[in-house]
Here is the input.
Amino acid sequence: MRRTAPIIFAALLLAPALALAQAAPRLTVPPIVFSQRTLPNGLRLITSLDRTTPNVTVQLWYGVGAKNDPPGRSGFAHLFEHLMFKATRDLPAESFDRLTEDVGGMNNAFTADDATAFYEVIPANHLQRLLWAEAERMTSLVVDQANFVSERSVVEEELRQRVLAEPYGRLFNLDIPKDSFAVHPYRRPPIGSIADLDASTLNDVRAFHAAWYRPDDAILIVVGNFDPAQLDAWVDKYFGPIRRPQAPMSAVTAVEPPRAGPRTVLEYGPNVPLPAVVITWLAPSARSPDAAALTVLDAVLTTGKSSRLYSQLVYADQIAEQVFSSADLRAQLGNFYIGAIMAGGHTVAQGEAALEAQVAQLRDHPVSEAELTIARNQLLGATVRQRETVDGRAQALGEAVIGEGDAGRANSDLAAVAAVTPADVQRVARKYLTADTQVVIRYLPESDRPSGAPPPPPPPAAVPSPHYTGTVAELAPPAQRTAPPPIGPPVRFEMPIPAQRTLANGLRVIVAKSSDEPIIAAELEVLGGAQTDPPRLAGANSLAADLVTEGTATRTEPQIARQIESLGGELSAASGWEASQVSLNALTSQAAPALALMADVAEHPAFAPTELERVRKESLDALAVDLRQPGSIAGFAVSPVVFAGTPFGHVARGTLVSLPRMSRDDLARLHQAWWRPDNAILVLTGDLTPDRGFALARQAFGDWSKPDGPPPAAQPVTGGAAKRDIAVDLPGTGQAAVVLAKASIARSDPRFYSALVANTVLGGGYSARLNDEIRVKRGLSYGAGSSLDARAATGLFYAQAQTRNEAAPQVASLMQTLIAGLAAAPASPQELEARKSSLVGEYGRALATADGLAGILGALAIHGVDPGEIDIYAGKVDAVSAADVQAFARDMLTAGGDSLIVVGDAKVFSTDLKSALPDLEIIPLGRLDLDSPTLTSP
Here is the structure.
């Protein structure tokens, strides 16, 4: 009865929601209009024009991925992805950052099983330079021993951070592929292994580049604002002369055998707070006629709170802290899997039985039309959101070419998804998700490994490196280098123009049109936030925000989830330090019903006792997971260390001690006091005019009653606590998190823009000083940076990085040295100009999306800054001088009071750290008490 009763109860509650879903619209996604041609050397060019943006994305997709890693060199395609950002014959190392980030753009790359992709977003007048540079690194990449060793160290730190330091990193990155495939190279993780990376040599790298980085293995994608004829001429000029190598590319011919029967595998990992279970099946390739039905089946299982696994395992039965699934369909074959991280007190056996029951239900009974409509609309809504940006559209085209061999599938696949029927979903469930071909992976803490269990298999025998005899490119002397092409005339950008009104009930409404894409975003900012958490109730505002979407006076949580998801929208709530937010993203055609639902959750949350207990338990389980991750623990410790004794001096999300203390009345009182229209701001952005936005606001929120009396005011926080250095001992973790933090300035401080630029010079981007020194030059971290959180009265500055445990003292020392250097000497004109361009460019890209613009306008409103600030932002950044940056660093960043927080395996680093910091406090994880002023339990 314990398992069946909730199902019956939920079914009774869902009847009205099912009626809503049955009436839900059939959504459509505008197709991507594109052109394509193939050069004589085999390079494919795909273009899509967008005159509404000042930017353009250049993406180069190579048909080489992790499946093409040489034997004994797993992770090699990914390593090479990193090396492609080094020098070419005419460009010194890191020049791609100079050509992109330093002019207001961005660049990045990723490695998948079937491809490695490099992408940039730049102001459109820099297009010619980027095309030239991409051709440069295809033909004349320079890889010397120093760059190779440094970047290999960075990749190993990425592996430690993403795989070894995360409680479930081994499960998702190593165990699922290894246990799902028997012989196909898809069984090797794209990130590889430290042993294989250490075995690689310079000869390996040079041979790999010669074999795969060639025009007939490349797809060049350009989306954005450009002149088509000029673009064609530039592509022919820079890529046309590149010769196609005579040697053929080696194809992956491995054939994965059918599974002979079911199998159960036990896997173990350190720092695993909750056990997990995964069930995998072999699936077809992305080109299969069954791909659309499997994609919809995946959405039915886990996309959104109305999905089957969430609504049953997480919501009704409450046996899982998290559920997931994936229709991972690749170029050659696929892997379909489902899984759950168990809730506290529940076993993998329970999870396995529950997952198998859900799959059996799909095999035995067709899904309803209402459920299918919800799944389809969620997929189509997510697609519209992805395609709001030029790089999102380019990525959709690239994925279609690599996975399915045809860019047109980016459009036709959506039509296939829209055409999927209940019978199709049941058919593919019966065809692929069979009980006799499943592999069950049980992921358990290392402490559960039975004594005497067989040891892990020995590493495979070493594989010798090839003898490379080809051409070796070298960086030319400065006088002999070809200069980059000229920069074109700037492309004018129409800034959004915010308009604002105040409704009769006191609700301030800000509306700004961001684009013509059929999307709207809404953000309701309720002043207050975590700084108003009552004493001993850290996380009260966070928990209250979590609960507003979990049921109202007239709607249950399942009804809310089904209604918003049937519209293809997203609705969420959260609490920051100075405000709580309800956020909505919906298609323009569904704005009115979506906003009506948003208003209901904001105004009338029920705080039902059953929902409170469920959400509280989920929060405690999530905390248990985070308290096994060094970065999360360091983040929790920042506020209690920096702001001890103030309203900021606690963990905003709550703790294992504070969350159980909270009653329904506590949360209802918070909501009654702070959630009122005259204490809130509604921001509407996207594809709408001001008049349309104000009409929608009145329709949805006009009847929100304003209580008598003025709204409350938060107690201002002035200053921080005394300097304190701590290390939290997390034995066995793969990395250490290093954070340097201190109190900083108010948003209203006249030095705000100086602070913003100073932070960007120090740690705001790939080319900033922290990342350049710690990652690029020394290979000590996958990434290092800093952040400035300027609040109403006292803000926060912090620098952070993750590194191998033994390097934690060195990284901490480098952070302090770099901060001191910012105060000791002015930044050069070139560095200052580059960092300011990066700052303005990032801001501009955020303004171009509905969610980004809503977030920026909401943040301005919280601090009482006029929304017109977005139009003068670039000018204020540009006005900051090197002297301003130096003065801010001297007066605020190096004036004392900075606290160091290190979380990792203390036995590795504590001796060296203690010698540099005699007052260092070492706190074992078992004694860490985030509610105590000392952070330690007795």
Remarks:
- The longest helix spans residues 145-164.
- The chain is about 40% helix and 15% strand.
